[in-house]
Amino acid sequence: MGDLLSKFSEPDSPAATATATTTTMSSPNSDQPSSETPESQTPIEKIPDPPTDPNAAQTQSEEKSNSVKDGDNKEEEGEEEECGFCLFMKGGGCKEIFTAWEKCVEEGEKNGEDIVGKCSQVTENLTKCMQQHSDYYAPLLEAEKAAEAEVANQLEEERERLKKEEESGDKGKEDSLGVSAPDEKKSLS
């Protein structure tokens, strides 16, 4: 009997098709014109047969709770594996290229390779794709530009700091060695 109900829940089964046609037709005893009622549109729910063994009900409920727990664990694992950034990247038009980039990075990390060198072509393809789909990826592209500008500023500040240290270091060396500046040599002569 359980099989009979499951046949009706499968949309492509002959039994489901026959049921669909009979529910829209009026009953032969009715003198009213055929019209659908809300009850005829309600899907048939599969209800399991009651167990004959009283212990079977307890076993079934334990199995259900275990399967729900297992399902929750799998769902949690899937959420842990897929970060928000990854979900965002895969939500746009660059899903396939991003997946290729992910694989390249994972392989590089696994093999201890230089990821920047190994994945440069895939990264370039991903960047181009993101620019082509800038309507979706605009927040990331803007953040990347801001980060690049910040790095450029930090590099420039570092260069200036090193240059000042060299200049102050050179003056300190000259003074400690007793070497005079070129202008002082001319005035001594």
Automatic annotation (TrEMBL):
Acidic residues bias locations: 73-82
Classification via SMART domains: GCK (SM01227)
Ranges of biased composition (kind: Basic and acidic residues): 61-72, 156-189
All residue ranges annotated as the GCK domain in the record: 81-155
Highest taxon listed in the record's lineage: Eukaryota
Protein source organism: Castilleja foliolosa
Protein name: GCK domain-containing protein
Bias kind Low complexity: ranges: 15-24
PANTHER family to which the protein is assigned, alphabetical: F26F24.3-RELATED (PTHR34357:SF2), F7A19.14 PROTEIN-RELATED (PTHR34357)
Bias (Polar residues): 25-43
Segments for region (Disordered): 1-82, 148-189
